[in-house]
Write a structure and sequence with these properties.
Helix content is 39%, strand content 33%. The chain has four helices and five strands, in the order ββαβαβαβα. InterPro entries: Anti-sigma_ant (IPR003658), STAS_dom (IPR002645), STAS_dom_sf (IPR036513).
């Protein structure tokens, strides 16, 4: 399976909608997108993972790297995920303490944490 990416802006938030699998083969595509957004001055990102079927450690590394990039500009990176199998990966790795995880894009955009 491949990775699909699309972006849109809501207020000062940039939504990155991700679909498919985030793995060792597709993660560089997501990394490029996040780097490009930050380089273009988008420091408040919401990564919508509702369409993600699979996530491996490479994908987690890309998300952590994206978080470090936006934090360097006093920005934020929030995740939207309501799939138990993906949420379990964040819980097991302890990344639920690192990423604000929301159940909808609307909730993530409205959040002020």
């Amino acid at each position: 399976m491949d990775l699909s990416l699309s972006t849109e802006t809501i207020g000062d938030r940039t939504i990155v909608r991700v679909g498919g699998e985030i793995d060792v083969y597709t993660a560089p595509k997501l990394r490029e997108q996040l780097v490009e957004l930050v380089n273009d001055g988008n420091f408040h990102l919401v990564v919508d993972m509702e369409g993600v079927d699979f996530l491996d450690s490479t994908g987690l590394g890309v998300l952590v790297g994206g978080l470090k990039r936006v934090r360097a500009h006093e920005g934020s990176l929030r995740l939207v995920c309501n799939q138990e199998r993906i949420l379990k990966i964040f819980r097991i790795t302890g990344l639920t303490k690192v990423f604000p995880i929301h159940s909808s894009v609307e909730e993530a955009v409205a959040a002020t944490d």
